[in-house]
C-alpha cells in the first residue's frame, strides 16, 4: 500500500482539470464524504473521477461501492504504473469484501481476464489475492482452468479451502482432504515438492489448533508429525509452547533450553521462543548467557533481542562495548543504534555520552540527533559553552526538525552570553554557502526525478540558481550588518536574495514538495527544502533557501517567520478554524489552546469519527474509562460519540493533566497517551529535566507522540506569529 499516494500524486499531476486538484485536498484532510457530495454535482464523470470516487469509498471502508466504481474503469487505465497500483487496490477491496461476505457477487470474468496478464509489477501479490478470492468464493472450476504462475500457491489454494470451511481432518492419518484438489495438478509436482507440501499442511493444522486453544488435539497431531517427518525442531518448539500455555512453565523452559544447548544448530524461531519465555518469566541472566553464546550466530536478527536482554539484565557496559566493536564492523540500522543509545541514556548517562560522542565524530547521517542530546546533557550539567555550540549547530544546520525546535529555545536563552561565537558561526556558515556555486545538470535531473516537476519549471531553474549565486556577496555584508537590528520585511528579504523575478518558480517547487510529502491522507510538514542529505550531498544552490528558512526566523528576533509557501497553504496542514475558538472558550488561555490543538492534531488529525485499536474514541481519542470518570466528576450527561462532548472531555482531561503535573507540559502529554501510572513511574526512574526526560521514555509510541506534539506546537506558533512558551 505504500505506493498508493505516490500513485495518487502522479495521477493528479497529469490532470488539467482544477476541479480534481480541489478533490486532492479532500484526500489530505480525510474529507471523503464531502468529496463524494461535491463530485455528485458533476454532469459527467471522467476516468479520473471514477478512480477518486472508488478510492474515497475504499478509504471509508465501503468496499462494495469501491468495487463498483473501480470496475467501471478497468479497461481504460493504460499507463502501466497507474494500472499496477490501481489493480493492487482494486484487488484489496475485493479481498476485503470476500473476507467479510464470502457469498458476495464478484466479477469473475474480470478476474479471469486479469490472470491472463503476466508482466504486472505486482503480479505475484495480486495473483495470490485472486487465488484466495476464488477459493473463498468456492469458484474452483475457474481456478482449475487457470495455469498458475506461482507453484507455492498450491499450498495456499488447499489450505484456504480447509480453513474456509473450518474442517480439520478427523483422523490425520487418513488421506488428507487437500488431496482431491491436487489430483489434476499432480503431474506438475515432483515427489519432494509434494512431500514438502504435506509437511506444511501438518504445520498449518497444528498452528490452527493452537490458535483455537485446542492444545490437547494439537499435541496429538504433533506426535504424529514427529513420527511422520522426524523434524524435531518444529516439534520441540511447539510441544514446549503447549506446555508453557498449559501452565507447565518451568518444565517447558528447562526442556527447550536443554534442547537448544545440545543441538549444534536450531532455527531462529525456536531460539526466539525460548528467549521470549525466559524474558517473560524474569530469567534475565539465563537469557543473557544464551545470547552471549548464540548472538553472533543469528546476527543481525538477534540484535534487537540482545539490546532487550542487556537492558533487562543490567549489562550496560557489555552492551556499550559490543556496540563499540560492531560500530566499526557493520552499519547498524539507525533505529537499533538509537534504541541502544536510549537504553544507555536511561540507565548509564556516562556510557550514553561516550556513545553519542563516538557517533558525532563519524559520518553517520543521523548524528545531529546525538549532537542534540549531548547539548541537553551539557546544559543539564551547566556546561553552557559546550551546550551553546551544539545548540547553535542544530539551529544553523537542521531546520524544521524536532531537535531544531527545541534548540531554538536554548540557543536564544544562551545567546547573550556567547555573542562572539554566534557572529563567528554566522560568518563561517555564509562562507560555506558562498562556495556552493556549481550547479550540475545531473543534479537537476536527479531533483526532477524526485519531484516529478514539469519540464517547463526546470528550464527556468538553472537561471534562478545562478541569480542566487550572484547575490551571495551582497547577502553576506547585508546580513551581518543586520545583527541585533529590526527584522526586514518579507519583500525586503526577497529583494535581498534576488528572488523577486523568480519567486513564482520557487512557489511551484514548494507546492510540489508539499504534494510529494503527503502520505496516506494525513497531515505532514513536507513544505520546505528540508532534505538535508540530498542538499549536502548534491551541493545544490537552493540549499540556501533551506538554510535561511530556519535561520532567518531565529536570527532576526522571533517576530516574523518567512515561508516560501503561502501561509494559507500551510494552514491546510495545521488548521485552527473551528477548534481554536472553541478550545479558547473552554480554557481562556491562548498558550494552552495551542498545546491542545497540537495534541488533537496528532491524536486524530481532527477526524470526528475515529476509533483506534485501543478503543480510543473521537477527535480527542479518549478512552471510555477516562470519559466515564470525567462524567462522574462533572455530573454531566455526556456522550463519548458526540463531537462536542468528546472535544470537551479531551480538553478537560488534558488541562487536568497539565495542572496535575504542575504545568510540566511534557509529563502531561505523555500521560494523555500512556496514562498517569506509567508516567509517574518514569518520573521516578528518570531524573532528567524536560526535553532530556522525553528522550528516556521507553515506550516508542509515547516517545514519538510527545515529539510530534511539540513539533506541531512550534509550527502553530510560527504560523500565528507567536512566541512558543515552554
3D architecture notes:
Helices cover 68% and strands 0% of the residues. The chain has 41 helices and no strands. Helix 10 (153-164) packs parallel to helix 12 and helix 22 packs antiparallel against helix 23. The longest helix has 21 residues, at 80-100.
Task: Provide the descriptors you would attach to this structure in a database record.
single chain, 726 residues, 5 domains, 41 helices, globular
Short description:
With 726 residues, the protein is mainly alpha-helical.
> Could you say which structural class the secondary elements and strand pairing correspond to?
mainly alpha
Average pLDDT level: 72
**Given the structure, what is the number of helices?**
41
* Largest β sheet strand count, sense and barrel closure: none
Strand content: under 5%
Q: What is the helical fraction, as a range of percent? A: 55-70%
Tell me the distance between the termini.
38 Å
CATH architecture of the largest domain: Orthogonal Bundle
Q: What is the topological layout?
A:
Elements: H1 4-13, H2 18-28, H3 32-39, H4 47-59, H5 63-71, H6 80-100, H7 108-114, H8 123-136, H9 140-144, H10 153-164, H11 179-182, H12 191-211, H13 215-229, H14 232-245, H15 249-262, H16 268-280, H17 284-294, H18 303-312, H19 316-329, H20 334-347, H21 349-360, H22 367-380, H23 384-397, H24 402-414, H25 419-435, H26 441-451, H27 455-470, H28 472-481, H29 490-496, H30 503-517, H31 532-538, H32 543-555, H33 567-570, H34 577-587, H35 590-604, H36 624-634, H37 643-660, H38 665-674, H39 676-685, H40 690-694, H41 700-719
Amino acid at each position: 500500500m505504500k505506493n498508493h499516494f505516490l500513485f495518487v500524486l502522479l495521477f493528479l499531476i497529469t490532470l488539467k482539470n482544477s476541479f480534481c486538484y480541489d478533490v486532492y485536498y479532500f484526500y489530505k484532510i480525510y474529507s471523503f464524504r464531502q468529496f463524494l457530495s461535491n463530485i455528485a454535482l458533476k454532469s459527467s464523470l471522467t476516468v479520473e473521477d471514477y478512480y477518486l470516487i472508488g478510492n474515497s469509498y475504499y478509504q471509508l471502508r465501503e468496499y462494495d461501492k469501491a468495487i463498483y466504481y473501480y470496475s467501471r474503469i478497468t479497461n481504460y487505465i493504460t499507463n502501466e504504473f497507474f494500472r499496477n497500483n490501481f489493480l493492487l487496490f482494486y484487488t484489496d477491496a475485493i479481498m476485503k469484501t470476500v473476507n467479510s461476505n464470502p457469498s458476495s457477487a464478484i466479477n469473475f470474468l474480470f478476474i479471469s481476464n486479469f490472470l491472463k496478464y503476466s508482466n504486472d509489477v505486482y503480479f505475484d501479490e495480486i495473483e495470490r489475492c485472486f487465488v484466495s478470492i476464488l477459493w473463498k468464493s468456492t469458484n474452483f472450476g475457474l481456478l482449475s482452468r487457470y495455469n498458475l504462475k506461482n507453484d507455492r500457491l498450491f499450498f495456499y489454494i488447499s489450505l484456504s479451502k480447509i480453513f474456509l470451511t473450518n474442517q480439520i481432518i478427523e483422523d490425520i492419518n487418513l488421506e488428507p482432504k487437500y488431496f482431491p484438489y491436487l489430483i489434476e495438478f499432480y503431474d506438475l509436482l515432483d515427489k519432494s515438492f509434494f512431500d514438502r507440501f504435506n509437511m506444511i499442511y501438518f504445520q498449518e493444522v497444528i498452528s490452527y489448533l493452537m490458535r483455537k486453544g485446542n492444545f490437547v488435539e494439537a499435541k496429538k497431531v504433533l506426535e504424529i508429525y514427529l513420527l511422520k517427518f522426524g523434524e524435531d525442531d518444529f516439534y520441540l518448539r511447539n510441544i514446549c509452547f503447549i506446555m508453557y500455555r498449559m501452565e507447565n512453565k518451568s518444565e517447558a523452559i528447562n526442556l527447550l533450553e536443554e534442547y537448544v544447548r545440545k543441538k549444534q544448530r536450531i532455527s531462529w524461531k525456536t531460539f526466539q521462543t525460548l528467549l521470549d519465555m525466559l524474558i517473560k518469566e524474569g530469567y534475565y541472566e539465563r537469557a543473557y548467557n544464551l545470547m552471549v553464546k548464540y548472538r553472533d550466530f543469528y546476527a543481525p536478527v538477534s540484535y534487537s533481542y540482545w539490546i532487550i536482554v542487556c537492558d533487562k539484565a543490567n549489562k550496560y557496559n557489555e552492551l556499550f562495548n559490543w556496540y563499540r566493536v560492531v560500530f566499526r564492523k557493520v552499519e547498524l540500522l539507525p533505529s537499533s543504534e538509537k534504541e541502544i543509545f536510549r537504553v544507555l541514556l536511561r540507565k548509564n548517562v556516562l556510557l550514553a555520552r561516550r556513545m553519542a560522542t563516538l557517533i558525532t565524530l563519524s559520518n553517520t547521517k543521523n548524528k545531529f540527533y546525538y549532537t542534540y542530546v549531548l547539548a541537553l546533557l551539557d546544559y543539564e550539567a551547566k556546561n553552557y559553552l559546550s551546550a551553546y555550540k551544539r545548540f547553535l549547530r542544530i539551529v544553523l544546520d537542521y531546520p524544521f526538525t524536532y531537535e531544531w525546535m527545541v534548540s531554538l529555545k536554548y540557543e536564544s536563552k544562551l545567546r547573550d552570553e556567547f555573542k562572539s561565537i554566534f557572529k563567528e558561526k554566522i560568518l563561517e556558515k555564509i562562507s560555506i554557502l558562498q562556495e556552493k556555486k556549481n550547479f550540475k545538470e545531473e543534479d537537476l535531473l536527479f531533483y526532477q526525478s524526485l519531484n516529478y516537476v514539469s519540464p517547463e519549471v526546470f528550464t527556468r531553474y538553472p537561471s534562478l540558481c545562478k541569480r542566487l549565486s550572484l547575490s551571495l556577496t551582497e547577502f553576506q555584508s547585508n546580513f551581518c550588518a543586520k545583527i541585533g537590528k529590526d527584522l526586514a520585511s518579507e519583500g525586503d528579504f526577497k529583494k535581498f536574495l534576488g528572488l523577486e523575478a523568480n519567486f513564482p518558480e520557487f512557489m511551484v517547487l514548494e507546492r510540489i514538495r508539499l504534494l510529494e510529502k503527503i502520505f496516506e491522507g494525513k497531515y505532514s510538514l513536507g513544505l520546505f527544502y528540508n532534505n538535508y542529505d540530498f542538499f549536502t550531498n548534491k551541493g545544490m544552490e537552493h540549499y540556501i533557501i533551506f538554510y535561511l528558512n530556519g535561520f532567518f526566523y531565529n536570527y532576526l528576533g522571533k517576530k516574523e517567520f518567512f515561508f516560501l509557501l503561502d501561509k494559507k497553504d500551510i494552514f491546510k496542514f495545521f488548521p485552527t478554524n473551528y477548534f481554536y475558538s472553541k478550545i479558547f472558550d473552554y480554557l481562556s488561555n491562548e498558550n494552552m489552546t495551542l498545546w491542545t490543538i497540537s495534541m488533537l492534531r496528532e491524536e486524530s488529525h481532527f477526524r470526528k469519527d475515529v476509533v483506534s485499536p485501543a478503543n480510543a474514541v473521537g477527535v480527542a481519542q479518549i478512552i471510555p474509562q477516562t470519559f466515564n470518570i470525567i462524567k462522574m466528576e462533572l455530573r454531566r450527561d455526556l456522550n463519548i460519540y458526540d463531537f462536542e462532548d468528546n472535544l470537551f472531555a479531551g480538553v478537560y482531561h488534558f488541562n487536568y493533566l497539565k495542572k496535575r503535573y504542575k504545568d510540566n507540559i511534557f509529563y502531561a502529554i505523555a500521560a494523555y497517551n500512556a496514562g498517569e501510572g506509567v508516567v509517574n513511574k518514569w518520573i521516578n526512574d528518570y531524573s532528567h529535566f524536560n526535553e532530556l526526560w522525553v528522550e528516556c521514555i521507553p515506550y516508542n509510541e509515547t516517545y514519538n507522540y510527545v515529539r510530534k506534539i511539540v513539533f506541531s506546537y512550534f509550527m502553530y506558533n510560527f504560523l500565528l506569529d507567536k512566541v512558543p512558551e515552554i
